[in-house]
């Protein structure tokens, strides 16, 4: 088997990469999907939101788990990116049920982050980590090199470090977790810096009308949370790279002057150029390769990026681009599950590989990801806060209310909904309840409505 060397002679973990390792990983994943298809037991729970949440938290943060995952059939694979996209509020005290729940979450998050940091140390920065036996892991890419893996790792690490800084942080486990997070950062800082430098030096020059830009995917696709699109020159992949740089600077993994020297420009200029390039038409295009001249066909919901990611909306020009893109999505009925405020990823199906046509059609594009809708609502609230207006708050509340209704209807927080608002069930994807995504929904709910949806105190 083509493999990386062990992390160290005394290391607990061993990581493998290469064509042979990828074949083994694909076999493991095929078995996982088949097992889920024929062995998954459908539990019909109470439709009461509190009971659904308690069940989800007990499932997501079980003491027997070794890594934080969703509840999907591919949950036996580990996705570092998810800690930025889907798990940013695992340690939000307002979403924690009791002290035992807090301890389980901290321990699981710490184990997960340590494993990801060991992978970075071994030089395995991939979209997916697949367990292959006791302390053996395979790193593979589905379907191209990642743009957001380091972002997820930094976001997970940051969440532990800042666990005791929230206003209502009253659980002892959070303070203990913060101390463990700071130790992790000190232990792996040099490894993270090396990976950030490799990411920065991998950016490619892109010329547009005589102006030089830097893109992570100018010549070939880079993946993000919507990686099955397999497209080049996408906004979200490049926004993830920028967000990775800012997180690395905040955690003092790398200095801004050193990073800017690598980029050959100031970080603020790098961001401004991305906005100028993708927002040249007055709204944010999903991809520079979009040939359709109809604006609504050139945008996608994943432009909202991740929590504390690309958008800060402090500048009026940035707010104008966000508002124009948002308004295109709100105005076009093709983006909306009928009679709801559930928004689909895009107006049409993107390019798909054969496995998606068979096993999980419409996994991207003509489906609704509740977690992307939550981020859409959160960015709307950001817009209103920075603009001093009340432009999108009611829409954000409608989005969250419809997600709550779907959660109660379907017996849990769904990973995906079909374009008709039904549970996403295909041959290989019998159905998934995204247990670990639920806390993020509660955090944004409280922000939108001013009071928590659930209160255990």
A few lines on this structure:
With 457 residues, the protein is mainly α. Helix content is 46%, strand content 6%.
Account of the 3D structure:
This protein has 457 residues and is mainly alpha-helical. The chain has a single domain, classed as Alpha/alpha barrel (Glycosyltransferase), CATH 1.50.10.10. It contains 14 helices and seven strands. The protein has helices at 19-39, 49-60, 82-85, 99-121, 149-161, 172-201, 235-250, 256-263, 267-278, 316-331, 354-358, 370-387, 393-410, 438-449; strands spanning 14-16, 128-131, 136-140, 204-208, 211-215, 367-368, 417-418. It has a three-stranded mixed β-sheet, covered by helices on one side. It has a two-stranded antiparallel sheet with strand order 4-5. Strand 4 and strand 5 (211-215) form a beta hairpin. Helix 7 runs antiparallel to helix 9, helix 12 (370-387) packs parallel to helix 14 and helix 13 (393-410) runs antiparallel to helix 14 (438-449). The longest helix has 30 residues, at 172-201. The N and C termini lie far apart (53 Å). The model is unreliable at 1-10 (pLDDT under 50).
């Amino acid at each position: 088997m083509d493999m990386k060397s062990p992390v160290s002679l005394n290391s607990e973990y061993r990581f493998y990469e290469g064509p042979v390792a990828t074949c083994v990983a694909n076999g493991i994943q095929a078995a996982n999907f088949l097992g889920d298809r024929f062995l998954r037991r459908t539990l019909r729970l109470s439709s009461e939101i509190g009971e659904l949440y308690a069940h989800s938290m007990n499932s997501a943060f079980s003491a027997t788990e070794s890594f934080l995952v969703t509840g999907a059939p591919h949950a036996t694979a580990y996705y570092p990116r998810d800690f930025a996209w889907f798990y940013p509020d695992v340690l939000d005290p307002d979403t924690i049920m009791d002290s035992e729940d807090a301890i389980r979450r901290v321990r699981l998050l710490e184990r997960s982050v340590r494993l990801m940091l060991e992978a970075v140390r071994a030089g395995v920065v991939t979209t997916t980590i697949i367990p292959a036996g006791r302390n053996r892991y395979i790193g593979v890419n589905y379907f191209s090199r990642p743009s957001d893996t380091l972002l997820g790792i930094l976001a997970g690490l940051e969440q532990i470090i800042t666990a005791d800084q929230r206003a209502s942080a009253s659980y002892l486990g959070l303070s203990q977790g913060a101390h463990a997070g700071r130790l992790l950062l000190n232990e792996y800082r040099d490894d993270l810096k090396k990976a950030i430098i490799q990411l920065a030096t991998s950016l490619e020059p892109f010329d547009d009308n005589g102006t030089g830009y830097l893109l992570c995917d100018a010549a070939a696709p880079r993946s993000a949370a919507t990686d099955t699109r397999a497209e080049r020159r996408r906004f979200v992949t490049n926004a993830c790279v920028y967000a990775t740089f800012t997180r690395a600077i905040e955690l003092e993994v790398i200095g801004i002057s050193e990073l800017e020297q690598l980029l050959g420009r100031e970080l603020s200029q790098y961001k401004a150029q991305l906005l100028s390039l993708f927002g040249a038409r007055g709204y944010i295009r999903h991809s520079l390769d979009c040939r359709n001249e109809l604006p609504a066909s050139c945008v996608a919901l994943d432009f909202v990026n991740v929590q504390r990611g690309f958008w800060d909306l402090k500048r009026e020009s940035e707010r104008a681009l966000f508002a124009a893109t948002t308004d295109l999505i709100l105005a076009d009925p093709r983006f909306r599950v009928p009679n709801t405020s559930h928004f689909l990823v895009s107006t049409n199906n993107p390019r798909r590989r054969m496995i998606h046509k068979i096993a999980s059609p419409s996994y991207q594009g003509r489906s609704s990801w509740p977690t992307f809708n939550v981020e859409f609502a959160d960015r709307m609230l950001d817009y209103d806060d920075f603009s001093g207006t009340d432009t999108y708050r009611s829409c954000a509340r409608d989005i969250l209310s419809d997600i709550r209704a779907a959660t109660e209807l379907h017996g849990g927080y769904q990973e995906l909904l079909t374009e008709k608002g039904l549970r996403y069930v295909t041959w290989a994807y019998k159905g998934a309840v995204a247990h670990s995504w639920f806390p993020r929904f509660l955090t944004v709910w409280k922000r939108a409505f001013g009071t928590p949806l659930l209160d255990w105190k």
